């Protein structure tokens, strides 16, 4: 082993290797950058060999330098690749949190590119020639689509909840039904966010039943707010009862100092119930039912970028805008550009709303999906894979519309001698990565979340496999 270690070439010899120079030119790296990587590769090999017996080392001395260069090229290739990459979503889960949730519309993408490529009036009032506010960029269109008196945007809905509680209920009491003390992704709990904000949680009712009198009896001089949390990521069935927002407004009449706040979570602007999909209330409906303020996500049912949108009474929104956290939690110009373009689609015709990929995917008919699935089968003829059309169900995902299943068509893929896990891994590790589902020991691709362009990419990938 000591003899083998002595065969490791010095770095200056590696630098002279023709492939070292070729790698430097191919990946546009400086001499210093590539030298640092070469040192890391040699150090890694040395450490590995120290933990290896002589009998396990199969490299001849003349092969060592070649091996180092190969490892160096692998390292450079990995370093050069972007960490955030395109993924093809074949799972059928439309708002797949692990895969980036909502896809942006072409109009939103164009607006992001325009704003990113040029200077913009982010905080400049063109008409007056004076400093402006980034809140003004988005407020008008939010008011139009929700009917709110005022609005603002922060970086996600958890931030919106935190800001509202911190600014409006610090060292005060906030009443919440026990059945609404939800936990969202990443173990973020309403109770924990409330504790961080400095507000005091007052739990009322039970896990499955909360009544109006539970809220009435809990109100004290220290009560700042009644908070309703829309349970968009789970559903309680059976012996249950909850208090609609409309009923809480009658309680508020006797306690005008108490704010009514509803965290809607998903933030539907389109009423999917009109299409017999789910039971999600719209933002406009919540405000119309008496909420003083609501918050919701931009990248769920709304179909835009990650953002937390706060809408409601003007006096309340003004307090939030002036709070120090508003600057901490504000969004950048590209988020505002994408969000404005997405929201504007809701002010246009139904056809324009369908240009939002999330809305289009949720509303797409089974017959339309079947047509794309048949194209997949036709293009896959001659491949050494067994392709079969099957009916199935898609999920909306992203913690929205629990229990709602959308009828869809899938293509199952199998190959003799290959396990489903092997094929799943091969597709996942391809470029671009293709994420699928394994059902009954077969890989399945749900065509609800696959575009025509992506059908061609998948077929090409299968040909390479």
Give the key terms:
single chain; 465 residues; Aspartate Aminotransferase, domain 1; Aspartate Aminotransferase, domain 2; seven-stranded mixed β-sheet; four-stranded antiparallel β-sheet; globular; selenium; L-seryl-tRNA(Sec) selenium transferase activity
Account of the protein in words:
- By secondary structure, the chain is an alpha/beta fold.
- The protein folds into three domains: 2-80, no CATH class; 87-97 and 361-464, Aspartate Aminotransferase, domain 1; 106-353, Type I PLP-dependent aspartate aminotransferase-like (Major domain) (Aspartate Aminotransferase, domain 2).
- It has 20 helices and 17 strands.
- It has helices at 2-6, 11-16, 18-26, 31-50, 64-80, 106-117, 134-146, 157-169, 190-197, 212-218, 245-253, 283-288, 314-322, 325-328, 333-345, 350-353, 357-363, 366-379, 420-428, 452-464, and strands at residues 87-89, 124-125, 130-131, 150-154, 173-177, 183-184, 188-189, 200-204, 223-229, 259-265, 293-297, 308-312, 386-395, 405-414, 433-435, 437-439, 442-446.
- Strand 2 (124-125) and strand 3 (130-131) form a beta hairpin.
- The longest helix is centred in the first third of the chain and has 20 residues, at 31-50.
- It is globular and about 90 Å long.
- It starts with a helix and ends with a helix.
- Keywords: Cytoplasm, Protein biosynthesis, Pyridoxal phosphate, Selenium, Transferase.
- It catalyses: L-seryl-tRNA(Sec) + selenophosphate + H(+) = L-selenocysteinyl-tRNA(Sec) + phosphate.
- Converts seryl-tRNA(Sec) to selenocysteinyl-tRNA(Sec) required for selenoprotein biosynthesis.
